[in-house]
UniProtKB/TrEMBL annotation:
Family: Belongs to the GST superfamily. Alpha family.
Classification via CDD domains: GST_C_Alpha
EC annotation from Swiss-Prot or TrEMBL: 2.5.1.18
Classification via InterPro entries: Glutathione-S-Trfase_C-like, Glutathione-S-Trfase_C_sf, Glutathione_S-Trfase, Glutathione_S-Trfase_N, GST_alpha, GST_C, GST_superfamily, Thioredoxin-like_sf
Organism: Circaetus pectoralis (black-chested snake-eagle)
Keyword Transferase carried by entry: yes
Protein name (record): glutathione transferase
Alphabetized Gene3D superfamilies for the sequence: 1.20.1050.10, Glutaredoxin
């Protein structure tokens, strides 16, 4: 095995996409193994590789890490994206947890029944514009700095730019009432590591399509 982190998941966004984002933002190259069959997944379980019989799986620093939150906090700490002290880390945690709640709605959207899609899209828009984005608009406006915490690039910034772009894919004008977030999006998108990740051919995955949905249901479906 090379020294690069190795990521095992489906060839799509899902719960692994924030891990890809964070590694890419830190300038870390990684390898990927894509699950395509239920047999591959069952073999990982049989071999005792998955602590809780779940992916994402990230092999890093001699560990086989599972649980998305644990993986992300380890990477954030390792690459100095987790604040300078406990107070900053607590802020980052709060911001990340909030963004994760919003992203959970986006994560589940492709699996909505057709008759529920419009209602679920309205829910995403309502939550983004009334609950989550106003928090970050206010934070950026109040402290007048480029980043969310400590005027230093952190895990919270990475999660937020990922969420902004994911919501915009579904609701293009969602930032129309948030000038601070519009400026934040431009700043983050022009950071060299993130700019590289946003280019065609990067490990960033496209929006989930029907093929991805079917693959997930085939591998993990009951």
């Amino acid at each position: 095995m090379s020294g690069k982190p190795r990521l095992t998941y489906c060839n799509g966004r899902g719960r692994m996409e924030p891990v890809r984002w964070l590694l890419a933002a830190a300038g870390v190259e990684f390898e990927e193994i894509f699950l395509e069959t239920r047999e591959q997944y069952e073999k990982l379980i049989k071999d005792g590789v998955l602590m809780f019989q779940q992916v994402p799986l990230v092999e890093i620093d001699g560990m086989k890490m599972v649980q998305t939150r644990a993986i992300l906090s380890y990477i954030a700490g390792k690459y100095h994206l987790y604040g300078k002290d406990l107070k900053e880390r607590a802020l980052i945690d709060m911001y990340v947890e909030g963004i994760t709640d919003l992203m959970q709605m986006i994560l589940m959207f492709p699996f909505s029944p057709p008759e529920a899609k419009e209602k679920n899209l309205d829910s995403i828009k309502e939550r983004a514009t009334n609950r989550y984005f106003p928090v970050f608009e206010k934070v950026l406006k109040q402290h007048g700095q480029d980043f969310l915490v400590g005027n230093k690039f952190s895990w919270a910034d990475v999660q937020l730019i990922e969420a902004i772009l994911a919501v915009e894919e579904k609701i293009p004008a969602v930032l129309s009432g948030f000038p601070q977030l519009q400026a934040f999006k431009i700043r983050m998108s022009n950071m060299p590591t993130i700019k590289k990740f946003l280019q065609p051919g990067s490990p960033r995955k496209p929006p989930p399509d029907e093929c991805y949905r079917e693959t997930v249901l085939k591998i993990f479906g009951k």
